[in-house]
Amino acid sequence: MNIVIIGGAGFLGQKLARALVARGRLNGQPVRRITLADVTDPVGIEGAVPVDTVQCDITDPASVARVITDETQVVYHLAAVVSSHAEEAFEEGMQINLHGTLNILERCRALGTAPLLIFTSSLAVYGGEVPDPITEVSLLNPQNSYGTQKAVGELLVNDYARKGYIDGRGVRLPTISIRPGKPNRAASSFMSSILREPLNGQGTNCPVDEDFRHYYLSPRKCVENLIRVAEISAGDLGGNRILQMPGRTLSIRQMIDAMTAVAGPEPARLISWQPEEAVRRIVGGWRFDIHADRALALGLEVDGSFEENVRAYIEDDRPGG
Amino acid sequence: MNIVIIGGAGFLGQKLARALVARGRLNGQPVRRITLADVTDPVGIEGAVPVDTVQCDITDPASVARVITDETQVVYHLAAVVSSHAEEAFEEGMQINLHGTLNILERCRALGTAPLLIFTSSLAVYGGEVPDPITEVSLLNPQNSYGTQKAVGELLVNDYARKGYIDGRGVRLPTISIRPGKPNRAASSFMSSILREPLNGQGTNCPVDEDFRHYYLSPRKCVENLIRVAEISAGDLGGNRILQMPGRTLSIRQMIDAMTAVAGPEPARLISWQPEEAVRRIVGGWRFDIHADRALALGLEVDGSFEENVRAYIEDDRPGG
What we know:
Two copies of one chain form a homodimer. By secondary structure, chain A is an alpha/beta fold. Helix content of chain A is 40%, strand content 17%.
């Protein structure tokens, strides 16, 4: 089984590749080769499975065609320009998030091999005057360009799957926390920073109030779920190939309390509380009362508690940990 | 006020143009010029307002740029490859319904004048395992490529409007019956043919059972609503610029009874009842329990009865009538 991970330089692509190497199998078949593709050359991974790294510009169909070939059985499409970035740079967001996704779908269609394609969508597809709770039959009413482009991707994945051009699946990821690495241009960046930086002994700012609630999943559980999504039988997915990946709804206060329970009182003292209006405007409309019953019934899983997320960060990702 | 109607050769574009000419005003301003643009040269219209006709290929950005200029205040985008056609000719559907719509949106954005853009969507955005009734907060879960492409158009119209690139509005049209002219490649074509052909003294076939229910509006009321949509103040639309245009849910039997009430018993005898599986497969999943409360509250209207639709056909459209 040859697996291509587009967005393979990102933290999720890297973790997914390491998990697939460690597992050695997907859908009952041995993993023969993993190709990490990204706009910047991804970091390679050592292990029992060969892992290639390759530069790929998904806005260029020829570049996509070099990466996804008739030997590709599985494509994970994780690449995106994130929320704040897509909001500031409208054309770039459209090129990468919409046309890039179309280029990947069109390449898969042209191959005629109906590869398994897993597309990552986002909570940003929700918003506006849609009643709580958000369920799998709620209107997608995105309030930013990133969410719009992800909702478009979902519709296209469903249609290409229905037509038999791909064995498509999409998952709306909860906000991943604690995400390793550095702050990025996602409006949700602080939802990891406020824990990660203090756990690393660094100061950070929380731009929202401590009662701000949102919907979270650990990177570890997210990767497990991304693998599970590939292994659900097509018949069990029915006529809608898009799932809400399950998460937990938590306030900032609950997250900080979990950090304190695991790591003691020092990290929380490194958080300052300066409101940031630009961030508040974007995340203030984000939905958190989200139900993922269908995904849970299909075997996707949620963290047992946010303490687990904090421990997973310390074990898996904390520098020098 | 300069108005461009893309899809201006279609029956709806033609009726809309005639209504705008007769009205002479839109949004409190005089209509100075109407441009009917279509892939085939539209039929011109005589009246007190100059009506230009022009060929336009919306898959070609340069062609779109020649039609939508900085003098264009209003764009009606009615052009589409219809449902059965888009299902058979996937690439053509994508080119016209998705990339064509993108080309129109991108042209409007490039102008910097934020023109008023009215986009026509379709009931085909609904489907699958979404509970009845369908409301304005139901998931769009299209079960064919046409519906997918229309749902994508809706999302983009909303986002371009939110960004201020257009004053965008979208309306999901009920199935228009009685549509004048000839059968087309829409799976819904028979929903007019079974009345139009008998009213014209010709035989026709009904491919579904007489208890098949669907959601209808007359061309006359549809045109009135398309004008009304342009005149709703942006503030009243709130964060979702897409409306379900109101219609009536009727069975085939109710429609035929209405025809008989208006035109006597002869027309109904011209209908044969041979099931057509290809049509049934597509329309069988179409939704009919549809609520359009928001549009009704904003002043859009529904026909008083289907008898009105039959009379409107006889008055407005029946050949030699």
